[in-house]
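From the pipeline queue, job 12 of 40. The input is one protein chain; the requested action is below.

Action: predict structure.
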Amino acid sequence: MGTSGTHSGKQRTISVGILTAARVEFVLGGLTFSAVEEGGKVVIGGEAREEWYFDAVGSFFTLKNVEIGKGFHWQRYQDQSFPGDLRLIARDGCVIAINVVGIEDYLQCVIASEMSPSAGFEFLKAHAVISRSWLLAQLDKRDEVREGYSSVECDTPDELIRWQDREDHEWFDFCADDHCQRYQGIPQGNPAMLIKTKRVIEATWGQVLWYGGRVCDARFSKCCGGALEEFKYCWENKEVPYLKYARDYASGRDWDLTRESNARRWILSSPRAFCNTRSARLLGQVLKDYDSETKDFYRWTVEYSAEELRQIILERTGEDYGEIRDLIPLERGVSGRICRLKIVGSKKTKTIGKELEIRKTLSRSHLYSSAFVVEKTPGGFILHGAGWGHGVGLCQIGAAAMGARGYKYQEILQHYYPNSTLKNIY
């Protein structure tokens, strides 16, 4: 699967945690093996070792029953094949299957996992650059020591404000699910996607977004809902010059969406935007089959009875608010996403944030976004929302639309990451 061209072909390797289970089944060289944990060791065929390492260079290995979309509404299991090597270790009564793989080979699989074969070439090149940038930025961030670094801004009985980022994993660099980047291995039975993604990686080999002497932390989401959010409203309270507010279209009226009245008008309307589309052909470039189960994302509606919402919040937080009487947005980011929400119950009232905390609290999986307005009904609540994801950085559906309209990948990147530049670092 390796790539080669005018570059050297040399790649830095990373480790990706694919699967953690009591029993791991895998196929290598046409043979099927089963690995289990016993006494803190990995046992295969009756032989126990502290660690097993299988060199699969020039070939691939297959893992059975890999869980994808954990905690999201598309959660399911798949058999997946991976380039590179397989490492098996035992921890906490389970076997952890880890893929040791070159960055560019990894990225080829990321692009295939995120997109479909119909995706436009310029769009895929843009995504390859941001996926590479994000990965290298996370490796740089992991190596830094930041004094006083915390994801909890406020934790009292009346208020919980915290943000959730990619966690540093103890036994590998990245996980294979959406919490890091979607990595589902080689697109088996899909030679067109394999050829296209190989061309994409060749065309962008070693290219990253660059700002201020370092690689950009290039965030992305499925659909911004027509307006890009700024970094500080979702994660740390810091300015990131290349992750700024913008409309997902060059023209049109620009409203201050931090104001509740404007946010309500914006979310309850359907403004012109690159990502405002119902084109099955265009959406097919971005959405995998299970993603397509979500029919509405630019604008969406979720309805709860008061009792259903009470149960969801209890399950998700362990806190019984009693009868949910109101949901009150206290602060919105520049895209209209709520970053501080007051939940009013008959037993307790509490303010929560930031955006992912809100999304996780109000849904058994993840609410599509925190850009919503609340309609109270006699029996409960209707949430009218916009977008899918945090809305920071590249909007995948918007970027696909730009590519379909003839924009080059450099133009797509400049739209979503202003102030950044393209740089080849190897």
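Job complete. Residues 1-104+154-164+219-392 form one domain.
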